[in-house]
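I have been asked to look over a protein record a colleague put together. Thanks in advance; the entry in question is below.
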Amino acid sequence: MAAETEGAALTVDELAARAGVTVRTIRFYATRGLLPPPEIGPRRVGRYGPGHLSRLALIEELQHQGMTLSAIERYLERLPADLTAQELAIHRALVASWAPDSAEETTRAELERRAGRELEEEDIDRLAAMGALRRAGEPGTYRIDPGLLPLGIQLLDVPVSCETILAARTVLVEHTRSAAYELTRLFRDEVWNPYREREPDPARVAAMRDRSAPIRPMVVQALVTAFQRSLKEELRAAFGERRAEEPGGTGTG
């Protein structure tokens, strides 16, 4: 529960405004167990944290995918209880990647409402570098990526320059596209083409294509899991060894 309430500073009205839902909706989700209870502060006022905001965004995305509240409840129950707000935001971005490509147009005021803060031009530049938004034709309007924006907003306080963000994005795009190409080639050559060649019935071929669609989310989840493990090992090797070299460092990682 600490992951949900850490940094809790929002009232229920502020949480509703940030999430773009009503207070009634928040309380309804809480009664269904979709949201954990708030941290109770002075005068018995409930306070909500970044985890509640990220969870509301995930619920919204799951609804966009056509899931019922009962299905969402079962989905959330399977998630680890100690997921941080950042991990929930990543999970939401992963879910959103399966929706049809759609960008929303919004104003600067609406963008700042979602962010819960005033945004400087440098913040806009960093969000653009992350791919979370791009400037639209009219001044003060933006085309946002609903899946990436919440994660991008959380990363605004990380001291990373636009140049570093762009370089990191280039690395990710290059290598993920290469992985996607190789995996698609493998499926095409080893599964799809052999099946199509030995199956004369066009209807069965079409049915096979439809049945293969659920494989895509599983492949993405496998890639994310493999990347997380590889990144953890690389960070441990890089910074664990550096700590060993520093005065008083133990090198335990």
Summary: Residues 62 and 71 are 9 Å apart (CA to CA). Residues 249-253 have pLDDT under 50 and may be disordered. The two ends are 26 Å apart (CA to CA).
